[in-house]
């Protein structure tokens, strides 16, 4: 069980800002973008294509933000980032054409690379706390799991009451009011130096060495790409695809609302057992649960019970996967350069995954929601297939120790 101590405060503060950050910078598009497209005279695929471009080019900022956190800590990186993100989100209220939409989304997503999970993970890893970095990462993601549950209905309520222009102003204002001061206060702890951080991580988790290090990075990133490719599609097309399975919009939205709480359930479970669970195991568990959710969806998703079970399984897996994407690079490659490493991983995965909303929207329009979900399941299968190629440094260390004491057979 978790024992409370003040060193949890940075993670709790960042967890709160992840609800606001992900809710505003990711989940609101599913509600507002279709209405914006209609008013701006754009097709749905064009609007989501612009979103994909904004995600792609915005992700270029990720390595820079990671390097800044490695060098200076996350306090001012995330504080300034939340200020810029709030202003960029408010600028979406002024959009009048496709070009303006692209520029506004680009600015918002670039600022998001200064405030979302990867920067938060790197920021707590740099703080001098009597708390393992992996525990802080688990706490941060525990909060973020409810972002969709809160922000989808909240954004819809704001839109129905005020329209999309005023909604963007309110959402941007909340980023400024909540995230700017919380980032400034919660990350004010002293920083630990890189040698201490690297040494602490090495004692717990042996790093990959030599050729295994390069091979591990390759297969980990490839697995992250396949495992994350469907995330943007689920966020934007869940309701549309579920309706295509024969459910009403209300039931589709209800099932979507189930995903968020079960992300939190999965993360809470991981947090309880994380002391005894190596990140490779955590990641395997996440992929298995997500695939089980899609298999249930494809076979039993035509029934309400099957739909809810599928949403719960997927939500638990996706929630745990977010933790693993932060702890696995730390376990395999150590704490030195952790922020920059997460940044480069992000720019690669986001760059490739940015096309997902457009690709899956085309699949849905061309072949239907069931086939769109089937391709998502295929992506998860490929993520599992590439995951098994990642070397396990614990086995490498065990082999090395055994070899050292083997008798000379020559």
From TrEMBL:
Keyword Iron-sulfur carried by entry: no
Swiss-Prot/TrEMBL keywords: Membrane, Transmembrane, Transmembrane helix
Domain Major facilitator superfamily (MFS) profile: residue ranges: 1-395
InterPro entries, per database record: MFS, MFS_dom, MFS_trans_sf, Proton-linked_MCT
GO molecular function: transmembrane transporter activity
Any Pfam family the entry gives: MFS_1
Originating organism: Thalassovita autumnalis
Name assigned to this protein: Monocarboxylate transporter
Residue ranges of the TM segments: 12-32, 44-64, 76-95, 101-125, 137-159, 165-185, 217-239, 245-265, 300-317, 338-363, 369-390
UniProt xrefs under PROSITE patterns: MFS (PS50850)
Top-level taxon of the source organism: Bacteria
Keyword Magnesium attached: no
